[in-house]
Amino acid sequence: MGRVSQAQAQENRKRVVANASRLFREQGTGVSVADLMKSAGMTQGGFYKQFASKDALVGEAAVHAFAQLEARRAAELEAHDGRRDAARQGMIDHYLSTRHRDNSGDGCPTAALAADMARDAGDAAHDVYIEGVRDFAQWLATDEEDGLARLATMVGALLLARATNGSPLSDEILHAAHAALSDDS
């Protein structure tokens, strides 16, 4: 079998990072290298040609996930004609929705990676995570509040709603957090 071109290698790397980003948000960073590569349609042997370690991939996948979150925030601003208060409320509406609760693979890395980042302190992925959380809180900030309480409420509610999914309590948690944050707007 011949060698792949540099362009194909870059495309393969992007595909692995995107798939890893989704799988890590769905299943946590404990997903095996074999499963990661299989999800990208590649063999496990190709992993170490692309990445120095699994930790390096976790860092790149976190960057990818936070870039998707940034794109979502930008889309909210555009959808609300640059009106920050309306965009912020639109983000809260999306974040505390059943659709977001039920689709962790495409969802917020702040909630999805929290437990893994708490266990893996000190690595490059943890630094990416800290910066992503800081940026998200700043985006949620108002003139009166720095955004940390809003973010903590949103993430906590999403985690609890996911953990209680399938019971009426899950929807109640989302509605309660939404009501609390809508009143603060």
List the SSEs and their pairings.
Layout: H1 6-27, H2 33-39, H3 47-50, H4 54-79, H5 84-95, H6 98-102, H7 109-112, H8 114-119, H9 124-140, H10 148-163, H11 168-184
Question: What does this 3D model show about the protein?
Answer:
The structure is a single chain. With 185 residues, this protein is mainly α. The protein contains 11 helices and no strands. It has helices at residues 6-27, 33-39, 47-50, 54-79, 84-95, 98-102, 109-112, 114-119, 124-140, 148-163, 168-184. Helix 1 crosses helix 4 (54-79), helix 4 (54-79) packs parallel to helix 9 (124-140) and helix 10 (148-163) packs antiparallel against helix 11. The longest helix is centred in the middle third of the chain and has 26 residues, at 54-79. The radius of gyration is 18 Å and the shape is globular. The relative contact order is 0.11.
